[in-house]
Design goal:
The complex is a heterodimer of chains A (412) and B (230).
Chain A (H helix, E strand, L loop, with lengths): L1 H16 L2 H7 L13 E8 L2 E8 L2 E9 L6 E11 L1 H9 L3 E8 L3 E2 L6 E2 L3 E3 L2 E4 L5 E5 L5 E5 L3 E5 L12 E2 L2 E2 L11 E5 L5 E2 L7 E9 L7 E11 L4 E2 L5 E6 L4 H5 L6 E7 L9 E4 L3 E4 L2 E2 L10 H7 L5 E6 L5 E7 L11 H11 L3 E4 L8 E3 L3 E2 L15 E10 L5
Parallel strand pairs in A: 14-15
Antiparallel strand pairs in A: 1-2, 2-3, 3-26, 4-30, 5-28, 5-30, 6-7, 8-9, 8-22, 10-11, 10-22, 12-13, 12-21, 15-20, 16-19, 17-18, 17-20, 18-21, 23-24, 23-27, 25-26, 25-27, 28-29
Chain B lengths: L2 H20 L1 H17 L12 H13 L7 H27 L6 H28 L10 H26 L7 H24 L8 H20 L2
The chains are: A mainly beta (412), B mainly alpha (230).
Chain lengths: 412, 230
């Protein structure tokens, strides 16, 4: 009776403050006819099409942003940190530009030792490939904000042919993008380095580096990108990656003859795809594991490339971040669960999947967890306690994040 | 002071330092708060550490008391192995310190042998189960990386069994019986603490200074064992 009354009260409050569809997106899971454990203790409208709710019960605090994907004024942006930045720093940087920052959540797992902030999975920002995928879940968005969660592969090739003779030119496979493995472990191949990698150090004694100053359209996924070879550098000297271009690194004996034919001024074309995602990919960000598949809890750690010991460690109760969307692909939920403090002990992947299921998600995946988990809400700032460790009480610096922005008033 | 007494004190101090090293982040907070309380009538400025042995122990106990239904069974065994391993890592120092009170009791040596041998058998058995349950390693990764610790644990267990037999039967008479039973764990604690301190110094998320304290403690305890040996 009390529960029914409180739901009625929430529904009544929603009717005053939020449009009907946001009541549905944010209301208690019980309202969706599913077995719910948590109830929202606070909810508000951040912007048209964007609602925030805080959920709390003894031992668990969760924050949810519900996004109307049909709301064209909302821009979903996969954002690469400059090197590594905290969620707040990224929000401040974005907010200093033309866009108003309405929300954001931490993104992919990343190599903490790298100053460049290198994520493990793929990242596409405004159609431009920053990093290649690994066998983990990837959240991608098409031009109309249509989301997809899946495991993508890199299909990348290049040719030393001009734009006019692409149809009959020979294409060569690119083996990887921004590979960071030690030189000794590197297999013979041709590697693409994007500006997000920052630069190649001098610790690369073998091979040849082709520098392309400008490539257009800039490393766009799904398009043929063309440019001109600016210069050829022997590996062993530090090379910065041009901001509007890229590097091709020819490594190993099998590519010596091709590297010998590289001359400044030669045309270069690249084609980058992320199958099975078809068409253009406007934004993409990695994470994993998948939590929900077709409306059913499916924690697919074993199907994704997580180191076995790491998989067991991240499966404990930790602070969590996750993303999911409904069957109609009309609502996207960004979820952050607090942990590692007295008020909230965090969730396991199974508990997180169940929570996303109760919210109404049809497909869902996790983002990086633990000290990386954080949620930014416009007008509120970082809503969660971010805790990285005794020596790192401040917010953790991240490699990337998913943000929601809108044009600032007067610039629409 | 005789060599035996010196050895006893060194062993006691070393064991106490091993325990202190295990709980070093919490001890620092407790001591800091106590000092602050004495100085500023009760103000507590030192926050509890977010990551430490104690924290991980709690994390694993939590997973054992409420396992995730979507996780395979070997995940739970892994959490149990971590609890056993951490408990042994922390308690071994206390056992060493208590050993200083006993000299030649074979009964105590047998009890200590049971403690170390039982812990190592539990760890080796659990680690073997987890290793056997793991999915095949992904391309580019070798199963040897995870097999290594399993083999090490079995080697430690077999070595401990051999030394336990020697301790109880009065073999290796140059050393005190309880010290023979403690010898292998003590060497392991010395190497593990020193290795972890070197590997984790400056780690952003894991306080490593306790391992230095532990390594110093293990070295002192080892010195104590050598001093009170014949």
């Amino acid at each position: 009776m009390i529960a029914a009354s409180s739901r009625l009260l929430v529904a009544f409050a929603c009717a005053w403050f939020l449009p009907a569809q946001w009541c549905a997106a944010l209301a208690s899971p019980q309202d969706k006819g599913k077995k719910g454990k948590l109830a929202p203790t606070e909810q508000s409208m951040v912007a048209p099409g964007l609602g925030y709710a805080r959920w709390e019960q003894p031992g668990v605090i969760a924050h949810v942003l519900a996004i109307d994907l049909k709301q064209k004024a909302l821009h979903i942006r996969s954002v690469k940190s400059k090197g590594k930045e905290s969620l707040r720093e990224i929000a401040d940087r974005l907010g200093a530009g033309d866009e108003e920052v309405l929300g954001g959540i931490n993104g992919d797992y990343f190599r903490q030792s790298s100053e460049a902030g290198l994520p493990y999975g793929a990242q596409v920002c405004d159609g431009r490939l920053y990093f290649a995928p690994m066998k983990r879940s990837l959240l991608s968005f098409a031009a109309d904000n249509e989301p997809t969660i899946g495991i993508a592969e890199l299909k990348a090739k290049f040719t030393l042919a001009g734009k006019d003779s692409l149809s009959d030119s020979s294409w060569f496979k690119l083996d990887d993008v921004n590979q960071v493995e030690h030189e000794d472990a590197r297999k013979s191949g041709i590697y693409l380095y994007t500006p997000a990698f920052l630069g190649l150090s001098s610790a690369r004694p073998k091979g040849t580096i082709a520098v392309i100053d400008t490539i257009e359209p800039a490393l766009q996924v799904g398009d043929v990108c063309t440019g001109t070879l600016a210069r050829v550098e022997p590996a062993g000297t530090p090379v910065d990656i041009p901001e509007n271009g890229c590097l091709l690194y020819f490594f190993g004996d099998s590519h010596k003859s091709m590297a010998a034919g590289l001359k400044p001024g030669r045309p270069v074309a690249l084609k980058l795809e992320l199958p099975p995602v078809t068409g253009s990919v406007v934004q993409a960000i990695g994470g994993g594991p998948r939590l929900l598949r077709n409306g059913k809890v499916a924690v697919e750690l074993d199907k994704e490339e997580f180191d076995s010991v790491y998989a067991m460690e991240i499966s404990k109760r930790h602070p969590r971040s996750a993303v999911g969307f409904d069957k109609a692909k009309e609502t996207l939920w960004l979820v952050m669960v607090e942990g590692r403090h007295e008020g909230s002990r965090g969730m396991t992947f199974g508990e997180l999947a169940a929570f996303l299921d109760q919210l109404g998600c049809w497909q869902a995946m996790a983002f990086d967890c633990g000290g990386s988990a954080g949620l930014f809400v416009g007008g509120k700032g970082i809503v969660s306690k971010s805790m990285g460790g005794q020596n790192q009480p401040e917010e953790r610096e991240l490699a990337n994040a998913l943000f929601l922005t809108a044009a600032k008033a007067g610039q629409q | 002071m005789t060599r035996a007494t010196q050895g006893r004190w060194l062993l006691f101090l070393g064991g106490a330092l091993l325990v202190a090293g295990f709980a070093w982040p919490e001890l620092r907070v407790a001591v800091g708060n106590a000092l602050d309380a004495a100085r500023t009538s009760g103000a507590h400025a030192h926050g509890a550490p977010q990551r430490s042995h104690w924290f991980v122990l709690q994390e694993n106990l939590d997973m054992l008391s409420e396992p995730d239904e979507t996780s395979p069974a070997y995940f739970t065994v892994w959490y149990g192995v971590q609890v056993a391993g951490l408990a042994w890592f922390g308690l071994a120092g206390a056992v060493l310190a208590l050993s200083a009170l006993f000299s030649r009791s074979r009964f105590v040596a047998a009890l200590i042998s049971c403690f170390h041998g039982g812990a190592l058998l539990l760890l080796a058995g659990g680690a073997t189960y987890v290793f056997a349950s793991l999915p095949p390693p992904s391309p580019g990764h070798s199963a040897l990386v995870t097999l290594g610790p399993v083999v090490l644990l079995w080697v430690l267990f077999l070595g401990q069994t051999f030394l336990s037999f020697k301790a109880v039967s009065g073999g290796m008479a140059r050393f005190v019986a309880v010290d023979v039973a403690n010898a292998l764990p003590l060497l392991f604690l010395l190497l593990a603490n020193a290795g972890l301190w070197i590997a984790l110094r400056g780690h952003p998320n894991w306080p490593a200074s306790g391992y230095l304290v532990g390594a110093i403690g293990a070295a002192l305890a080892l010195l104590g064992v050598l001093r009170r040996g014949r």
